[in-house]
Amino acid sequence: MQVFGKNSTRESVPILDDALDPLRRWEQFREPADDEAVFPRLDKAAKALDPTPLITTQSARNILADLCKWSEYDFEESLKPHGARRGLGREIYRENPQLAQDVLWHKSIETTHEGYAQEAAKRTRDEANDIIGGE
Predict the structure, then answer these.
(1) Measured over all CA atoms, what is the biggest interatomic distance in the chain, rounded to whole angstroms?
(2) What whole-number distance in Å separates Cα of residue 68 and Cα of residue 77?
(3) Facing residues of 3 across strands?
(4) Taking the domains of the chain in order of start, what are their residue ranges?
(5) Calpha distance 109→32 (Å, rounded)
(6) What is the C-alpha separation between 108 and 27, in angstroms, rounded?
(7) Cβ of 93: how many Cβ atoms within 10 Å?
(8) What is the spatial distance between Cα 54 and Cα 4, in angstroms, rounded to a whole number?
(9) Distance, CA of 66 to CA of 6 (rounded, Å)
């Protein structure tokens, strides 16, 4: 899939299996043009523009807040888009820091290590315990 990176250039990214079916259903529902955003703004002003502009970060926050309200789960506070990214990064980092760097698009592995320093400490402890316990 091609996405816009931070510098607004198109970049190819892998789509994780859990996201493929929902994205395909969304694509069938919307039938977007090739140059159109996967998640466009849907307000009347945006629909008048060609191509339709991308969804904003605040709009994504609002959508997640609504979904949290409609959910049967009692959230202490609404989920946020960056929280999902952090959770994904943490899960992948636990198993493979290099892969986490790639998935999160960090240019440097040091950025990934800094962002997940607590996970790095746990990983080091667990690996050391495995070595010591294996003797």
Answers:
(1) 69
(2) 8
(3) 11
(4) 80-135
(5) 35
(6) 33
(7) 24
(8) 10
(9) 26
